[in-house]
Amino acid sequence: MFLKTELFEFNGEKIPLFELSALQRVELLHYLAAQEHALPKQGTDEQTLSAALVELNIRAGAMVVAMSLWHSETPKRNLKDLQQEIMSTWPVQAIGKADTQVKVLSGMLAEAQAPTSEADTPSESAIKEETAEKP
Predict the structure, then answer these.
(1) Using an 8 Å Cβ cutoff, are 102 and 64 in contact?
(2) Second label for 1, Cα 20 to 30 Å away, from 42, 49, 72, 114?
(3) What is the rounded CA–CA span in Å between residue 106 and residue 25?
(4) What is the pLDDT at residue 112?
(5) Spatial separation of the C-alpha atoms in residues 32 and 134, rounded to whole Å
(6) Quick check: 19 and 68 in contact, CB under 8 A?
(7) Residue 97 DSSP symbol
(8) Cβ neighbours for 117, distance < 8 A, ≥ 6 positions apart
């Protein structure tokens, strides 16, 4: 297999993360476009839009992590089920950290852009403020 792999560590637990395949990157783009299309339309109050953007960010991060972990699954599970399991059992901070690690591993994010420590990892309120500004 050509995919790079790297250990992810959080709270003393370690699991291997894989870079995303070319097909997975295409599928991720379609997933993100569909999620963005489902966002509330104009006229929505700021608080509702902010909550929807935070939810989108968490779901997208969990999808990236699920796509990465899918490579180590035997037998291969449904990607949506794996995403749901991650969202149900992982803290938001772990999802964000793993999402960033997979994106760096996959060449989707420059290593210089990635947070270098937990102190640099954006908090949920910081994510809320950042995503609230995006259309």
Answers:
(1) yes
(2) 114
(3) 9
(4) 65
(5) 14
(6) yes
(7) H
(8) none
In the predicted structure, residue 26 carries a pLDDT above the cut 90 = yes
Is the pLDDT at 15 greater than 60? The verdict is: yes
In this predicted model, what pLDDT tens digit does every residue of 66-104 receive, in sequence order?
999 999 998 999 999 999 999 999 999 999 999 999 999
Burial 75-105 (b: 16+ CB within 10 A, else e): eeeebeebbeebbeebebebbbbbbbbbbbb
What are φ and ψ of residue 126, in 5° steps? Answer: -70, -40
By the 10 Å C-beta count (0-12 exposed, 13-18 middle, 19+ buried), 20 is classed as: buried
Amino acid at 47: Q
Query: How many angstroms separate the CA atoms of 59 and 99, rounded?
Result: 11
Per 3-state DSSP, the chain is made up of helix, strand and coil in percentages (nearest 5) of 60, 10, 35
Please say if the pLDDT value at position 115 is more than 70: no
